[in-house]
Amino acid sequence: MRYPAAETAEKHQRILDEAAKLFRERGFAGVSVSELMEATGLTHGPFYNHFASKQELMEASIEHASSKFLTELEATPPSERGKAEYIATYLSTMHRDAPGAGCIIASLGPECSREAGLRRALTAHVRNLISKFAGHFPWKSKRRARSQAIHDVAAMVGAIVLARGVTDDELSEEILNEVRRHLG
Fold first, then answer.
1. In terms of residue numbers, what domain contains 68?
2. Does the keyword Nucleotidyltransferase apply (predicted)?
């Protein structure tokens, strides 16, 4: 049975949205195709009408999450205040506690480093993020904008990874606050 193109596109989008969320929450191995399809309200069978494999979905979900994340960055005012607010939001307990809605690098970076296709998708995201971060916000030196953007992005991602990884809430918040203070 053929479905209208709009309905097929909507289902495809739903699968990508849910996959991007669940993969960031539980990792690639922590989510089965049948679980994912159940979470979208679809049966397992139609999955292969949208993706040839789970691997293809994993790569597509990185690209999908990347697009949304970069769109949010571009919606931030391109000012010192906008940059400070972006950094503060990134380095917040809300972001720390919601990996499914957050940064794909902090959630999936280590897993992506082990798979060539995932590394390619993550590399494209990191390149775009650094480029947009350097080009979108004002910097003290235009010549050093890229260098400073790499530094800031690496510090932000590292802080979220550390803050999520420790069991001490006080230490977790201290990590976020200190990195935010140094970048702000």
1. 5-183
2. no
DSSP secondary structure string, 108-138? HHHHHTT-HHHHHHHHHHHHHHHHHHHHHS-
- What's the angle, vertex CA 87, arms to CA 68 and CA 171, rounded to 5? 115
* Selection from 147, 171, 144 nearest residue 159 by Cα: 171
- Rounded distance between C-alpha atoms, residue 41 and residue 50, angstroms: 15
Residue 170 CB neighbour total at 10 angstroms: 8
d(CA 122, CA 113): 9
Q: 62-111, pLDDT tens digit by residue?
A: 999 999 999 999 999 999 999 999 999 999 999 999 999 999 999 999 99
96, 176 in Cβ contact below 8 A? yes
CA distance 49 to 8: 9
Q: Which pLDDT tens digit goes with each residue over 19-70?
A: 999 999 999 999 999 999 999 998 887 888 899 999 999 999 999 999 999 9
CATH value at residue 113 = 1.10.357.10
CA dist list (Å): 184 to 129, 152, 157, 180? 18, 10, 15, 6
Exposed e or buried b for every residue in 58-87, given b needs 16+ CB within 10 A? bbbbbbbbbeebbeebeebeeeeebbeebb
